[in-house]
Amino acid sequence: MSVAAAPLLLCHICSRWRAIAFDTPKMWASLHVSVENYIIHTKNKSAAIVDWLTRSAPLPLSLSISCRDPLGYAHAYCKASLRLLTQFSARWTSLQYIDLPIQSFLQLEETVDAPLLRDVHITCRSSGSVVGHGHILDSKLFSGTRVSVTSLDPASLVLERLQDPSYRWEHLTDLTLDLLGPSEPDWDDHNTYRYLDYETVYRLLECCINLRSLTVPIALGDTLTQTLEVPALESLTLIVAGSECEGLEELVDQLVMPKLTKFHLINLEFLDYTSPATVESLELLAENFPLISDLRLHLPHDDTVETLHTVLANFSPHLQKLSLGLAGEAYPYVSKFLRADELFQNLAPDGVVIPGLDLTELSLDLEYVPDALWMEFLWKHLNHHSRLSKFHLKLWSPHRCDTSEPPPAFPDVDPFLTRGLDVSVENCIRLPSKGSPWQGIKDR
Questions:
Q1: Contacts of 319 by beta carbon, 8 Å cutoff, 6+ apart
Q2: DSSP 206-235
Q3: What residues does each domain of the chain span?
Q4: Per-residue burial over 58-91, b = 16 or more CB atoms within 10 Å of its CB, e = otherwise
Q5: Class of domain 35-323+338-387
Q6: pLDDT at position 54 over 60
Q7: Comparing C-alpha atoms, which of 18, 32, 80, 28 is closest to residue 54?
């Protein structure tokens, strides 16, 4: 039984279970409202929403509202749904706003007082839905909250305001400008994305002087000559366009971030980490930002073992969380892969290969490897009494999902769990032209 379905299912068992459900506010502390073009906003539906949220009192609320209506016929009913939800805004802690008119969201702050709001996520699947509303980040609802906006055109959200050199978003502290991915219905090709160029990202950091966390799609290239101090920034995630790394070294050298502890570098085509420019960029990153304890990189080639050794040696011993992704069959132009046995040897807990490396969390995205290999690696950490407390392994299985045969079962991970090592293994299957009932098999 899912958490979302629990209240309704329990209410249909018997009157006793219904009474228990009604007297358990935690069951009603989250709600998703879907506005469709064929659903008329009736009084019964309004009453059901109010009753649901009333039962959750006095707990904080997690809400989401969506409108999957490309023709725009349902927009008239959005305002009515929002009016109902705003009655409970004093208890809002999380809000997801999916494919509704941006103008309706901007009008919320005129009537909403949400002192507990900490997370806001806005999704705009249509690039036209944000046109003319580049000032959405002005909303005071974002003050002190974690803000995430997912769009086909993230640049349109900031370009209008950033044209004014004196403009400031002092209320923003945690900002994510994300891209619609391949799982989204309207996704065609990542080249249709509109990445922010370096100058725009530079201006964004200059504008958001209180920013602690930033995730942004960036097209690396020409950089500026002037350095910029970002005193409050602790976390930086760059979603990079293309496979080239030109400009990364200049970016790392020009941004002064004394509090930076988290750096993630994500790209759709896998950067060439074997190029001298990339190696120098990562070495400079470790030199300029010695406090980095959370690092994420993608690795494509067989001869990146030496590069990985060089990079991690520069970041240890401060490095605590490490996430490594490898290219696979989904990227057919990549012909070589980092050997898993050499990777595990580099990350061994004895400190022989990389002195001082003592991770607490490790996440690996690998081609299929024998179970014995990663289990032996974990036993080494346990027997060595290392600090590793969390291990996640995502395996791209060679098992064909167009057959009726299930994928092989995972080995028992309970011996690791009982000794305090949180282990999760995910088997991802290469999809053919159609889906499979085995897609997403997981074990924990």
A1: 292, 293, 295, 312, 357, 359
A2: HH-TT-SEEEEEEE-----SS-EE-TT--E
A3: 35-323+338-387
A4: eeebbbbbbbebeeeebbebbeebbebbbebbeb
A5: alpha beta
A6: yes
A7: 28
User: For residue 80, which amino acid is it?
Assistant: A
Amino acid at 356: G
* Residue 18 identity: R
Contacts 24+ apart (CB under 8 A), 407-413: 407/438, 407/441, 409/443, 410/371, 410/443, 411/371, 411/375, 413/443, 413/444
pLDDT digit string, tens, across residues 17-30 = 778 778 788 888 88
Q: What is the pTM of this model?
A: 0.82
Q: Is 368 left (phi over 0), alpha (psi -120 to 50) or beta?
A: beta
DSSP, collapsed to helix, strand or coil, labels residue 59 as coil
Judge contact between 323 and 264, C-beta under 8 A.
yes
Contact predicate 325/298, CB 8 Å:
yes
Model confidence over 160-186: pLDDT tens digits?
Answer: 788 787 888 889 999 998 876 544 444
pLDDT tens for each residue of 134-144: 578 888 888 88
Question: What residues are paired with 393 via a beta bridge?
Answer: 364, 425
- Give DSSP secondary structure letters for 382-395: HHTT-S--EEEEEE
